[in-house]
Amino acid sequence: MYALPDQQLSEAVNDLEQALSFGTSHISLYHLTLEPNTLFAKYPPSVPDDDSAFDMQDALLELLNDRGFDRYEVSAFSKPGQRCQHNLNYWSFGDYIGIGAGAHGKISFPDKVIRTVKERHPENYMRKILEENSATIEERVISAKELPFEFMLNALRLTKGIPSEYFAERTGLGMSSISSKLKIAVDKGLLESNPAILAPTPLGLQYLNDLQEIFLA
C-alpha cells in the first residue's frame, strides 16, 4: 500500500523493494483510501497530495514492470503463470459459495442471480448452524437494473478485459441492454472499441471509477 501518512516517494519504493526481495511472484498494490466511518476518516492524517501519489504510482508501476510483473488487474500484478485463479473468478463475475462466519456468496440460476451473506459473529454463526442448519442472514436477488453495473464493477478491473459473450452468459441480459452505455464509454475513450471484448483502455484503467459509473442503473 502506498500514499501512506507522511510517506515520501523513496519510502514507497523501498517498501515495494522489500516486498519483492522475498522472491515474490504475485503482489497487490493499493493506494490508501480513508474509508467513511473509520477512525482515519474521523481524524484524517496527513497524506501525500494527488500529484505526489501519482508520482508514487508511476514509480511503483515502473519497478514492477522492470521486475517482470504483468499487471493483469487494476491492482494485481504477477509473474508468468502466477495469476490468482480465485480472484479471477470474482472478476469474471463467476459464482462462489460463501462458507464460514461473515462469508459472502454469489449463485446464478437460469432466472436470477442471488447474493448471500452469512452471520458474522463466530459464536452466533455456530449456534445458527446447530439450531437452524443455516447461518445465512441475507439472501438478495440482484435486479435486472443492477446486473450491468455489478458485472462491469468486476469485469472492467481486468486489464485485458473478458469476452463480451460473458455478459449475456452470466447476467441473462442481452448486449442490447447496455449498447447505449457501451457507446458512451467508447466515445469517452475509456472502453476498447473491439466488440468481441469488454476491456478498459489505458485511460479507462486510470479512471476506472468513471468508467464503471457509466453502467450504473
Could you explain the architecture of this structure?
The structure is a single chain. With about 220 residues, this protein is of the alpha+beta class. It folds into three domains: about 10-85, no CATH class; about 90-140, no CATH class; about 145-215, Orthogonal Bundle (Arc Repressor Mutant, subunit A). About 40% of the residues lie in helices and about 15% in strands. It is built from ten helices and eight strands. It has helices spanning about 10-20, 40, 50-65, 85-90, 120-130, 145-155, 165-170, 180-185, 200-205, 210-215, and strands at about 25-30, 70-75, 75-80, 105-110, 110-120, 135-140, 160-165, 195-200. The strands form three sheets. A three-stranded antiparallel beta sheet has the order 1-3-2, with no helix packed on it. Strands 4-5-6 form a three-stranded antiparallel beta sheet, with no helix packed on it.
Topology as H/E string? HEHHEEHEEHEHEHHEHH
The rounded distance between the terminal residues' Cα atoms is 32 Å
Mean pLDDT, all residues: 95
Low-confidence stretches: none
Per DSSP, what share of the residues sits in E-state strands of 2 or more residues?
A: 15-25%
Structural class: alpha+beta
Q: Estimate percent helicity.
A: 40-55%
Largest sheet: 3 strands, antiparallel
Strand numbers in spatial order across the main sheet: 1-3-2
Structurally, how many domains make up the residues? 3
Whole-number radius of gyration?
20 Å
Characterize the overall form: globular
Number of strands: 8
Count of helices?
10
SSE blueprint:
Elements: H1 9-20, E1 26-28, H2 39-42, H3 50-66, E2 70-73, E3 76-78, H4 85-91, E4 104-109, E5 112-118, H5 122-132, E6 136-141, H6 147-155, E7 162-163, H7 165-171, H8 179-187, E8 197-198, H9 202-206, H10 208-213
Antiparallel strand pairs: 1-3, 2-3, 4-5, 5-6, 7-8
